[in-house]
Fold these 3 entries.
Entry 1:
Amino acid sequence: MAVSSPFGSSIKRREDPRLITGAGHYTDDVRLPGMLTMSILRSPHAHARITNIDTSTAKAMPGVVAIYTGADLVDLVAPVPCAWQPKDSDIKVPEYRPLAVDTVRYVGDGVAAVVAEDMYTARDAAAAIDVTYETLPAVVKQLDAMEAGAPQLYENVPNNVAFHFHLGGGDVDAAFQNADLTFKQRIVNQRLIPNAMETRGAVASYQRGSNELTLWSTTQNPHIVRFLMSLCTNIPETNIRVLSQDVGGGFGSKIPMYAGEMIASVVSKELLRPIKWIEDRSENYVATTHGRDHVDDVEVAAMSDGRVVGLKVTAYANMGAYLSTAAPGVPTWLFSVMLGGTYDIRNVSSDVYGVLTNTTPTDAYRGAGRPEATYIIERVMDLVARKLNLDPLEVRRKNFIQPADFPYSIASGAIAYDSGDYEKTLNRAIEMVDYTALRKEQEEARANGRFFGIGFSTYIEVCGLAPSAAAGAMGFGGGLYESAVVRVHPTAKVTVLTGINPQGQGEGTTFAQLVSDELGVPVEDVEIVWGDTDRVPMGWGTYGSRSTAVGGSALVYAARNVRDKMMKIGAHLLEVSPEEVVFENGNVHVKGAPDQVKSFAEVALAAYTAWNMPEGVTPGLEETYFFDPVSNTFPFGAHVCVVEIDKDSGKADVRRYVAVDDVGNVINPMIVDGQLHGGIAQGLAQAVLETAVYDDNGQLLSGTMMDYAIPKASSFPNYELDRTVTPCPFNPMGLKGVGEAGTIASTPAIMNAIIDALSPLGVEHFDMPASPQRLWQFVHEQKGN
Amino acid sequence: MYPSAFDYFRPSSVEEVVKLLQENPEGKIIAGGHSLLPMMKLRLAAPASLIDIGKVAGIDGVRSENGGVVFGARTTYDQIMKSDVVQQTLPIAVEAAGVVGDIQVRNRGTIGGSIAHADPAADFPAVLLAVDAKVNATGPNGQRTIGIDDFFVDMFTTSLEPEEIVTEISVANPAARTGMAYEKFAHPASGYAIVGVAASVTLGEDGNVSAARIAVTGAGPIAVRANGTESALIGQAPTAENVKAAAQKASDGMTFLGDIHAGEEYRAHLTRVFTERAINKAVERAKG
């Protein structure tokens, strides 16, 4: 049964045959006897008072079982919770009723829930509910919402500012006074719609007698759902089972607790029948959280050689109409700690205003705060280069944190980077693009009047979200450790229960590789189980590129404890002391005598028959491990983007995309490349394709896939990828995480390239989206002038 | 994405379709369904009944006839792309079909459905205008032929009578030294044309343009001919400068639509740009 180490091999994803042949089991695939379907009637107005709801016609329709309004739910369920409330931020959490009671505050705010025998009836009945609204003035942009006289969403949130957060370090004022160059730049990071392939949904089944709620929920973190659901419904946590096995993408939008699953749960308890609620795409666009939406005022202090000595950021984050579960943590902590990027900037301060508007609530979206920060600092590097007439590469080199500086404490002291060699990734990227030749090509293109640009992004991100003490200090309402159970069965098969909850990231494969590596069993003998709160002891879920660094570490330590126990049992069977045996390829043999051996299967069976156990060793072969890392991980890299803008149509075409990433050690290169490919596309799409657009009345104009442009396979060229490897010292595998890296890096890389392409027109900054129309308009106007 | 309830009919002959249209004034014909069904799912359309022509005999496929090409109304884009007849005599139809939607849409969507639905951003209205197609329709009073120039009336509106069905679309074989091209700027979200320009250019013995039909879709409420461009081109040598000058007139007199991706001014500009590109390509092809 000898197996070579699978760590580092690109074995194919074990999940795929099932998923791509339609044999997956998503929430909408759950069908229970007697199940009813629920449709939520949503507000067509961005801001209005509800003066009357007449459900009589709808209730009388055949097949309609019940209709609930906001008032009906007040005694049944608590408001939708906000579970990340940064300390010292004067945060005001407005009451977020699962269905609005008297006022609706965004297009999509829930008004009534119709429960019917089938979805067609539920939809027809929802359309037959007569709601009388008294419309109120709406405000959709955060800066407008802060103005005097702006429509107020809540009496107790003056100027719609829900919180103000500050993080700083060094002496920013002195840095600005002593600098050779200071400048200001406003940078907009527009609102995006996450667009997971599977929309959100839930099936709730409350059993009479046992008083147990079983909830299938398409979530990234089932234990958080169980925890919050218990708090919101008063159903004891012991009586709630949350299932979340196949989840079709999340990108952060499936972290929050949502009204839909809360309503389904309490309605099931009321009616004692299973309730299914599944969003369609149009509902998903308004009812599932959006991402980003910052306006950032950036002030920079630099020396004439390109060194950045001070950075001051005032961020205005559009939170939408309510504070979603994790939302306040995103533009505050996850943003502010990343503003220095890969650069040694000792004076940094950020002030973040979380502003409420009549829009869909925002929350985490792939990268969550870190893309917004990275975009700022990477634009700043280019702006400094432009203003000082330096090569953007030289400015970056001048500012890089050096390999000898690790662990590197950022200016505020809030976190310390683990390890890195930033210049190495940049040098490799430069080599791959052949920078000198590329600049020459650019010169020739410019001579012919073409818009040809080269852009860089030398990013870093904080990943492996943990440790728990940091979570507590940041006001995150939970821990950030992970648990794992490694259970070897009597037949030598292995089950792993993990607290993480993938939505396509491939841990069903990579975690099996880890177990195979630790225990010497074939990958196919390892089963990875997640998404069942009755089986998995505890978990905080999959987000923040934390699953492998934290959850994978838990399972490695659990597996090592299993191995230790196997060595004790094996030694006993071989009639030697545990110190005299080694564990190799799954077998226990006497040191120097490989023929005196007990196989993995023999030891596993012996552990369960327990006929002949060493003294003090209990029967069974199962270990549980709760792992809380000492720190985060910090993947980094250098991305280079080459674009050409078609002057006539304004379309920016990506000619080349080179990415050199350092994510530490790599378990499965193919899966890591896949994460990068998807992430890069998502980040490029923000720059040139995607934007959530509201009109002044708060109507979502980009409300369908006919209007909201997500990237397609044909949108971008093949990427050229490479890696450097700097192991992370904080986990046993030495890896850093890769889930968000591509998204974080690619947006600034392409925008820097686009702005470089336009630089002959004298432009220093251009806000996203760099859509064909906006680029054409800009070029057209410049020519006109 | 749940449509309202509707009645469903699946007739097997054109006569039956006409009878069903007479009996169901709120009914809609459905072929591939790739325009109508999305509207129904969004509840932007709620026809009381659907008349599925999937089993109607005699309205399918492409054939060569009387010095021309005849498309059955239910011919799919995929069939058009794979037809030897179309590839040889009317390659612009292959070129245009290849940029309609995606593979799934091309497998289901039909040429007759495209023009009868008259989506302002559909590709084929421009192509059929440029090739001077004729539309055969059958109604309670029998068959009639409608010239393509008289077919498109307004957004989602054609000159078909409510009880008529498109059965065939015919196109005469192009004259000698004719080149055609379809150039499209696709909507980044929907893939429909923000601007699509179909050009058919014939060169005379002297090398000058002897005939030209240029049509624009996507930019405005209906697909239209670029008359100013056509007349500016005819009789001229097809030089880059002349083409450019003629293309500048493409947006003259047009009405433009606007959305979050492309406003009216931008669409007018793109109309000129893509007209120039389509003509240049057509001229190259005319020269052989």
Note: DSSP finds eleven helices and 14 strands in chain B.
Entry 2:
Amino acid sequence: MPPEDLLRELAPQVLGVITRRYGDFDRAEDAVQEALLAAALSWPAEGTPGNPVGWLIRVAARRMTDQYRSDEARRRRELLAASCPPTSPSPFTDPGPAPSQDDTLILMYLCCHPALAPGSAIPLTLRAVGGLTTREIAAAFLLPEPAMGQRISRAKAALKAVGEPFRLPPPDQQADRLRCVLHVLYLLFNEGYTTSSGPDLARADMSGEAIRLARMLRASLPGDPEVTGLLALMLLTEARRPARTGPGGELIPLAEQQRGRWDQALITEGLTLVTEALRHGPGPAGEYQLQAAIAALHDQAARPADTDWAEIHALYRVLERMTGNPMVTLNRAAAAAMAEGPAAGLAILDTVAGQLGEHHRYLSVRAHLLEQAGDQAGARAGFQAAAARAGNAREQQYLITKAAQVAADSRPG
Amino acid sequence: MRFMLLQNYGPVESGCPPMTEWAPQDIKAHIEFQQALNQELAGRGELVDAQGLAGPEQARFVVSDGVTAPVITDGPYPESKELLAGYRLVDVESAGRAMEIAAQVSAAPGPAGQPVRQPIEVRQVLSAPDPEL
């Protein structure tokens, strides 16, 4: 294993130990980050130590001690002995028990705390659980490193203000908290798969990182069908990445993708997982299992014409009832159009026009259905309107090209 | 020296129609030209940043006195076509080189491969004072 992969794997273990020992997640996280950076510099040159976890813990602990010593000196000068929060145990006693297999899970619950906006929870999770450096995270989000560092510091300050202890949430809160974790990982995956801004449609690193974190989460909670469902959804979506963009980076819609380029190994693993998840629960399937089931139906169709649109439509209907999310209704409209014709899809779209009428996805789906229905003028205007509102350069180019293509197709000759 | 090369929405000298009225292959050629140019500039170490902005329909203007609620409008101009469409930030040896790049951008291929001749606004980015002064 290359040193940087090993470091990322060990990061949450080390952070768990240091946080338990010193009772201060904020500083422990900084100290572990410094230890990881030190290791990234020295291990390639001097060789990976025999006990890499011990090495990292020793270096991180030394940083913590240095930090507390300088704090102590300052405190004496300022006579502010009371500034140590009562929840923090003395840093040099109480190493505490270290059930490290739970630490990754505890860290995920903590970093995806509902008090944090996703924009803060995602980078904090990447650093504290994923072991990425601030520089790597900043590059992934196209931000200067100091800005990303500030964002992570603010996130940790917000956690401190909430006073969340470093242990698993009480059992009656775990379901809600797990939902937050799944949501953050899902957003991270999407961030990598379709960037919300910028010239690169897909930033593979972030999707890969989301998959890695989802695998870690599943290792902690192997019996949870929604965790398994989310991992399956990611794999089944990621499998299509090689066919999703053309040589110039342009977006290729599902129906036009070369399906031979889909990653069959990921599809096979995703199918196994989604089957397992759906068989698992006694209750109704959760939203990630449903989305994974839909992705599975797409991935199993050798040709676009083989797609089971009626089943996909039915699954979107369940998902729509469960979430009440109008974006799901958009997808259901597209599936209904494929199963029953464009008029059925357009009728469904009308039900969310009030909520989504200005959204570029709504305009784009509607334009596709109008094109399917033979209304070239309406389709062209729709693609134009969607392009004007798109927030992703690749999507914008795709929509402009669609508008031009509909116009060209409808010209005589 | 850093320069901003700015492109606005708006009429161009060649009378080129908006992109959605081009032939699809002309759009493709135009996009490929822009990407190739960015790659060339990046390869020469001259490209600092290149971004396109979302359409003027989404532009908002915010005015605030810092006390009362800010006033947010769609803009003071009924003709929103004068808004910025995108920019390149380049770091070059001379103003002349910035003009050269701007000329390349302006001559990007349009319908039937004919140059669009879009006006490119070239603005020097103010730098820190020279330490010797």
Note: Chain B has a mean pLDDT of 87.
Entry 3:
Amino acid sequence: MEILVCVKRVPTVGGAITLTADRRAIDTKASGFTISPHEECAVEEAVRLAERFGGSVTVATLGPAVAEEQLRACLALGASGAVLIETEPGLEVGPIATATALHAVAAGGRFDLVLLGNEASDTGDYQVGIRLAHLLGWPAATGIKALAVDDGSGWVSASRTYRGVLETFALELPCVVTVKEGINLPRYPSLPGRLRAKRAAITRVPGPEPAGASAADVRMTSLRVPDAPRKQATVLGQGAAAVPALVDVLVQLGVVS
Amino acid sequence: MTVFCLVELDGGAPDGGAAGVADVSLRAITLARELAASGGLAAVVFGDPPFPDLAAYGVTDVYAVSGIDGYAPLAWARVLQWLMSESGHAVMAAGTERGNEVLAHLGAITGLPMAANCAQAVDNGDGAYAIVRQRWAGLLLEEAVLEAPVALLTVATDAVSAVPAAVPATVTVHDVAPSVDGSDLVVRAVETPAGAGGASLATARVVVGGGRGVGSADGFGPLEELAALLGGVVGVSRVVTSEGWRPHTMQVGQTGTKITPDLYLACGISGAIQHFAGCSGAKSIIAINTDPNAPMMTRADYAVIGDLHAVVPALVIALRERAAQGG
């Protein structure tokens, strides 16, 4: 089974988000980079499927040259091929252009399954997987938290919860599935995996030009951190001695009659 | 010109009572009504429409779609495409698993851009919309321009309050029985009851949160008891699910569930930024924590400085005594 996993380099966000002076990006001078938690699970799911059914996992990203770091991290986890669709540093590429660029990698009949995270944690566009599926002419399921592949029949059963109900979709391979954290617990990279990843070859292809990066998409004008609902909490007391005051607050809030 | 809004229904009462409009859709309709201004506001319902809810929110037209058995995202998108081709100037939905999915399909089949999880949308005329949408699950807001003959927008589930219209509308009903191409029904949901989890967390009025401070899988007993006494549910931070103490369905945060309760009672949660992305929609936050400088304390309305293992059991006893005395 040949699987393509699409990931995206995003800043590691810690205590607070700080923006650059032009308010068009996150200030990453002091932060590292990673892929989104949903995507870590997509890589893990792909590696497990390849371990079970044979075949291999290829990981692709659209981003600047330094996104090689994220591809190598995925190679250390068990992917065996990597494609970097290279864009100018700092260029934001919208979901339509991203899906188009990924399509060029995914098309051609090599892959049986394309996995993505449900959404990238930075832009949260919630659509690249579906747009890619339409370009490929494949069925898609999104937000998946349980995936079962029947290699013999070539069908996939994909489930998620929606308003307390379990929704299960049956899809025929080849298909696109976007997954969410919780579908598995990703492994840590092994030492041999890391060594292999260091030496692995990465295929580089040119990405969209700046003019086409978000021409058809929503165009960001600026970013802002929402007005901090920073409050000075009213301290009700220390330890169990605070319970009477706590009960009074619960009554005031109307959650206790 | 009309703004169409895909409406999701809640499950209805356990005794078989009629389904109402899901709270997230009332929020979406509220933003759709602002965008529609003096134009038409149309609700698209796959199933039996709850007319009183829709009229109260100013919906002028209801498209009641029948003949599609169950949830089929691409087929739903085709129906919206057909409806918007007549007089649509925007198609909106709640930023749920279904809302984002159906509008992404609609974007793909029409070639139009789609903006997910909007908090504001203003029509600047000539097919240009000024929007504010969530990034990083709401930790960051993006101001953006959307240029399209029809704007496709989902509404962030925790950024807009549901507000009924000043004057209820008179609703015109349109029955829609589309002929759907079989290929659009290939991906279709089969529904089975799930265990307790994500959904009740998303709609609970009270959530009792447990974090690293709970200490172990066995430490949740008092929190569960407290949640039951308050008519709420327990939610957890990411560390709790990655430690395997509780399943991922109970996780509150950017990669878990976004909650919008009246009260979030956060016990032993220091408050990572990704956790705030999931709980900032709470009307009130009470934090119980040993560390008075924990980030959660700067976002809470009320704080108790102390060990949750002492405070929560004492609170449970106090609430029980209060209930025994008749409130």
Note: The longest strand of chain A covers residues 56-63.
